[in-house]
Each structure stands twice: as structure tokens, then as C-alpha cells.
């Protein structure tokens, strides 16, 4: 059984390595049709590298590839090669190629997809991989054929039939009959047509792909309206890698699978989804391009949510594009800056509509209960809370020196249209909550410090969120932070603003005039924190603590150490490859598009 499962993993690994492999490239024969034209419109998820060879070349030319090939990392690369040598040698012995050679097999387009089954009564999903091996087709055939033999030696059954004039191989696990409690593992199916290989977990699905290897016209994933719109928004035709998720079909599949054949329950789930407006999000997709133009990396993500169909929860998120730039109070020294335009008046209306849909008048009932100890007018959510707020939220962060796990400082700023009115609302909320913050004056501003109760440890892991929480109203902004030193820095006069910083000015040139939101990142300080944690072993410790918290009462499994911290070169080696970056987002009638980028360094 372990050997059979190992064979299954190796077959899946062929396609996965094609997506992430970083070996040499070679010329290839063109596939019969792009994978998105071969896959059916019942595809739930899709991931494609347009040309694996070109993607490898792009990676090597990017700052990530240049860093990996830096002479200072030679010892680290040699150590990693030594640790993987036994695996590579075993692979060579069993299937005829080393790990490096396996990385180099795929050459053209490679796609991974999850396809929904056609049986309405029994929802299933199949994994499918379409890979173009180009001139390595015969070698990949040899590798897969030898994997068949390895599976047989592990007790699996291998059946071969002829389909479309080519052998179709079906590997069935020894556990295919199941144990009566858990479903049997799916088979591994593979075949080829020319240089294109089809691998998957369902015989019928693979036969369907082979039958439509030349494309399936209007019934293809690539012909669906949501997919076409997504490709246009993310520039999918020019991207090196793209991904796509059909949210509508995923929700439908999840609803059917969750109801387990109970039609009444399925209908109830569908009603709740519609009532919450979650069906307004049609699909999500993204693109990645490396080492192109001025960018070391460029990503685009599109949330397909047409404005005409927005309702329920989705109406909360209204981010109109505006000419948005850093506020004067943002210091030039911040390590990260994130801001976005948010129509909070519209958000309140969405909250009111949603609450009234399930419990009419509930907000009004709550307001009537928000009366101070001396009586008076109740607090109005719309007039007193949302009314004084502006339409912009900003978060900035930096690090206290020396940089440690707890040295990050973050502050949230909410723009105010009426600072005096909001100060009155804040005072009333404190009174209603019977809170007793410490008050202190700083630069003519009253800062309120709220002490927080100590959070209990979960599974032996102590919570990292600690107080006090400091708030104030100043500079037409409501500020909230867990580190008052950054707040005090912002309140001091004479702060050099971020807008005058040369690094920021370099990044902002890449932004359109009007955006819904933007970010600016200096990667060196965050990278320094990660590096120090990795070098000292605290990174591994943090992972173990996280695993312990997510698996209470269960032993924490050992984590293999592929990278020896002692082999890491000085941080300066990494720092010279770190580049400025940022992102921006734009909301329009089609949905929400986010673009992220890191700028290329001419001489790292």
C-alpha cells in the first residue's frame, strides 16, 4: 500500500514539477489546443503555466533566480543537493531519471484542473493534468511506464487498454474496494496523444479530455463568459501563469456535497447563500509574470462581481476609485503603507438592509438600548457612528530597532468628515461600555490607553496580541494602535511625509491616477525579521507552535529540515536582491482588480 501510494504521488508530481520546475528549457512541439479549450465548462479550478521552458528562463532572470544562483549561496545549494541525493538516486533507480532530470521533462503548456462530475445525485470532483513534454515525450512515457511497474510491485493493479489509438493506463490501489468506512482511493489514469500527456483520477474524465484534445468549442472552459472576462481583466493571454476558480460552480458543488443527498438541506443552503448575496461573486482569477519589462514580478487578481448583481454582504464592499495618495501625517520612514477608499455610508445601508432581511427593525431595537446612565437620546448608528466617518482607511507599519518578533508597530487611521462629532460619539461609547481608559495629553491631543486582559494560552501557546490599545482623534483622523510610540511619532510636528520619499515616488509612478486602494512596501525590514527568525531557529519554533495550536492534544509531527540555518549567508546577500514594490486596486462595474508588483533591480 505505501508503495502504491508513492507511485500515485510520483505520477501527480510529474505535472506539478512542470509548473514549478526550474531546470533547462528546450524547443517543443505545439499542443493540439490550449488546455482551457480542452477542459469542459464544468471545471471548478484551473491553473496553467503557458510555457514551462519560458517560465524557467523568466525565473532565472528574475531577482529570485539571481539570488538563488548567487555564489554566496553555493554552500546552501550544495547542502540541499546532498539532502535530496538519496531521493534523487532512488528515483533514478526506479523510474530512470534523477530529480533534476524529472524537473526538466515538461517543456510546453502545463495545466492542472479540478473537474466536477456529471452525476447530479452524487457530486464528485476529478483531478486532471495536461502537460506538453515536447521533445521529451518518449522520455516521459518511459518514466510513467516504469512507474506502472513500481505500482504493481507495491500491490496495485495496472490495466492497459487502447483508446484513440494510444495506450490508456489505469492504476488501481490495493485499497480500491474500500474498508466500508472511508471511500476508496481514486485510480491514477494516464495516456498521451502526440507530445501531450493526460493524467488524472477518473477514467471517464481522461477519456473525455483525449476525445476533445483538439478543443470543444462553446462547451470549453475557455469559452465561458466568466473565464473570458477574467482573462481580459488579468491580461491572461500575455501572462506566464494563470489560475481561475469558478465560484458559482464551487458553491453549487459544495452545497450538494454538504447536503449528502438531502434535497431539503441543499435547498436551504442555496437559499442562505442567495440571501447573503454570496452568489454575486461569480469567479476569481489571477495571473503571474516574472522578469518582464520594469518588473521582477507582476501579479493581477480579478474578483468577478458585476455591479448589477451585487447584494447582501457584497454590498458592504464599495471601493470607488479616487485620486488617492498618502496623507500628510504618514511618516516617510514607514516600512509599509496601505490605504483604500471605502464608501462607509453605503456600507451602513448594506448592513441595515441585510439585518432587516432577517430581523426587521433589529438595529433600531439595539439603538434604543444604547442610552447612557443619565438617559437622553439613544445612540444612532447612522448619524453618530457612520455619519462622522470619512471614506478612507489607512494602515501603516514599521519596526522598532533592533528588529525582533515583537518589534513591529502598526497603526490604523480612519478618515473623519466631522472630527468633533466623532469625538462626542467616542466619549459616549466609552461611557456606555463603562470603560476607564487612562487619559494623557501629548502635543495638545488627548490619548486614551485601554488596558487589555491577559489572553489565556491555547494549547500551550500564549497569545501574541497584547495591550494597551491607544486611540485618539487628531488630524481629522481616528487613530488606533497597540504601540503608542508610533502614534506619538505621527502626532509630533515636522514629520517628513511619505509622499516626499524617493522610494515611494519611484513606486507611485506605476499607479494610475485614480485607484480604489494602494500599498507601498519596503521589503528589507520585514525580510530581516524573517531572516533572523530562520537563522536562530525561531521560525521553525513558530511553525510548531502554530501546529500545536491547530491540533490540540495531538503530538506535533517532526518537520524535516531541508535548509540548514548555519549554511545561510549574511543577510546583506539577500538584501541586495530585495526590491521596492507595491500594489493597487480598482473597482468598476465588472468587479475588483488588484495589481501587485516588485520592481526590477538593474544591478542587484
Explain what the structure shows.
By secondary structure, the chain is of the alpha+beta class. The protein contains 20 helices and 20 strands. The chain has helices spanning about 1-20, 35-40, 50-60, 65-70, 75-95, 100-105, 135-155, 205-210, 225-235, 245-260, 265-275, 345-360, 360-370, 380-385, 420-430, 485-490, 500-510, 525-535, 540-550, 570-575, and strands at about 45-50, 110-115, 125-130, 155-165, 165-170, 190-195, 195-200, 240-245, 285-290, 295-305, 335-340, 390-400, 410-415, 440, 445-450, 470-475, 475-480, 515-520, 580-590, 590-600. A hairpin with a 2-residue loop joins strand 6 (about 190-195) and strand 7. Helix 1 (about 1-20) runs antiparallel to helix 7 and helix 10 (about 245-260) packs antiparallel against helix 11.
Please write out the topology:
Blueprint: H1 2-20, H2 35-38, E1 43-49, H3 52-61, H4 63-68, H5 74-95, H6 99-103, E2 110-116, E3 125-132, H7 137-153, E4 157-163, E5 166-172, E6 188-193, E7 196-200, H8 203-211, H9 225-234, E8 241-246, H10 247-259, H11 263-276, E9 283-292, E10 295-304, E11 336-341, H12 344-358, H13 362-369, H14 381-386, E12 389-399, E13 408-416, H15 419-432, E14 438-442, E15 445-450, E16 469-474, E17 477-481, H16 484-491, H17 502-508, E18 517-521, H18 523-536, H19 538-550, H20 571-575, E19 581-588, E20 591-599
Antiparallel strand pairs: 1-2, 1-8, 2-3, 3-7, 4-5, 5-6, 6-7, 8-9, 9-10, 10-20, 11-12, 11-18, 12-13, 13-17, 14-15, 15-16, 16-17, 18-19, 19-20
